[in-house]
What we know:
Elements: H1 17-33, H2 38-45, H3 49-56, H4 64-74, E1 100-102, E2 108-112, E3 122-129, E4 134-137, E5 145-152, E6 155-159, E7 162-166, E8 171-175, E9 180-183, E10 190-197
Antiparallel strand pairs: 1-2, 2-3, 3-10, 4-9, 5-8, 5-10, 6-7, 6-9
Helix pairs in contact: 2-4
Amino acid sequence: MTATTPQPPQPPADGGEALSRSLAVNLRRFRLGQGLSVERLAALSGVGRAELDAIEQGGGVPTIALLWKVSHALEIPFSSLFSAGPASGTTVLRRSESKVLASQDGGFTSRALFPFEGERRVEFYELRLAPGTVEEAEAHAAGTTENITVASGSVEIVTADGEHRLDTGDSILFEADAPHAYRNPGDREAVLYLVMSYVEPLFA
């Protein structure tokens, strides 16, 4: 979610080819469903046409930052880009099979703690920040909120109304439809758990 110039697609931290395939199919499905050309989506998202073409051709999974730009432009939940269809019954998610996304430098990682199948309005993530990491996030869709609990370490969460220091066991709830940031000022990795809630998107 770093607010920097989008980088070329790179393999996800878990090397999952299935993740790349789902992303390719869903990006094209949502784009065409909204009547958008690649050029128009590039203009709306700030992501280069070549990068979007590469994603739709299954050329790996880009950084978190780039994918947030695309999901925001399409006005869909982040996880919708990876959805593999409706989910039913009981789902067990093995850590060894987790889908992990990373920032460009690898200092910030996000692991989904929910199945990507089906549409949802609430998502659950494990976030890890290496010492000294600063992850800047662009505004999410209107009405989006983030509820974060620090499992270990210390972090600084910067929201629209200021900077908030959180230590192990602390939690924060804030409106994420404005730019925000996550910082790890400590000398050890920080582990956070994030519940992200969306309002109904314009397109689903």
